Amino acid sequence: MLKHSKLLICFSLLAGILFLIVCCMYAHPLKKSTVIPDFSLADDTISASSDTPKQLSLFASGACLMDVESGRILYGKEEQTPRPMASTTKIMTCLLALEQSSPSEEVSFSSHAVSMPKVHLGASKGSSFTMNDLLHSLMLESHNDTAVAVAEHVGGSVEGFADKMNQKAAELGLNATHFVTPNGLDADGHQSTPTDMCRLASYACQNKDFLKIIQTPSKTISDKKGHSYSLTNHDAFLTSYNGALGIKTGFTGKAGYCFVGAAKRENLTLTSCVLASGWPPDKSRKWADTKALMDYGFTHFKKQKISFQDFSKTPLHVADGIENQVFLRVPEPITLPLASFETLEIHYRFPASVTAPVSTSDPVGTIECRINGSVYNSYPVYPSASVDKITFSHILYEVIDEFLSLFCKK
Description:
Blueprint: H1 2-27, E1 39-46, E2 62-67, E3 73-77, H2 90-100, E4 106-108, H3 111-114, E5 128-130, H4 131-140, H5 144-155, H6 158-171, H7 194-204, H8 208-214, E6 218-222, E7 228-232, H9 236-240, E8 244-252, E9 256-265, E10 268-275, H10 285-300, E11 301-306, E12 316-319, E13 325-326, E14 328-329, E15 334-339, E16 344-350, E17 353-355, E18 365-371, E19 374-383, H11 392-409
């Protein structure tokens, strides 16, 4: 009889433990939480306060104006259409040489380099210069033979250097750009878009050595045998526009007059690109187009700091987790150039709940910015902590712990 009583007690305890486990599995977590409802709406809006200005009258077949910091396109005309870009190609040639060689390295001219057509430095085969001197030749005078000498030195061959140019283009997200030559002379498949060239220029603006070269008014260089060459900067934009940083001109019979420029006023730095901005004798049209683009940007756009709503203290419900809620990590404020005639809407998108496991590296929602009704960018929202999925062993541990706690109190 005593044996049966002991079995009955053990069975009762076991049944009680199993009952508690089942209850915890269905009732866990026990604490109540305030959850964010599932929503998608424009909680924040900056409204337009003036009329949109008229479209610019540009000579260029393709044009783009871009904010350097955000990469936002402020104005475009067939800005995504690929076209030949002539000697603006040398922006990439110069950047690769700066990144993959030393200024003091000795560069020699091959027979292929000296065969390049005008505009050229005119160095003889076997002539040697420092890389620094040749980069001034490249960017101030746009020498085609210099571009090939630099390419062969850095890439082993023109073809090898073109591969490096295209690899760098891919890294920078220049998806519509393809390089064939280092100097921009017309070649099948050698092309870019105004948008991509603005992105390239924006990247170049971050390189102090590049800026120093393109802003040099004049320079005399010499080869290792002492032959001197005088260089003059032919970028008229650099000395004719307030805040101009310069960058690069270009012309071929196929590309027409081209120019990629950059300028800075106060806290706003802009890059511009005009492709096919006329043919001879309309050499000055590229300057008029560039000035019109830059004036448009500096006149209408101001930098604005955009702060998002703070959801860091509002819990998000977590299903099947060892914790029943998690807080959100709010993205840092962003800075955007906005015009007085534009409307910015911020849409917050969060689910009613998420299911464990939850990781701090996996987004649980998004914040979407729309400018004039079109999506500009989406920013992921991450949880502030990870939450593991609840398991049978975890529940069993909690139940036993609770049971022992109650037992000890008695």
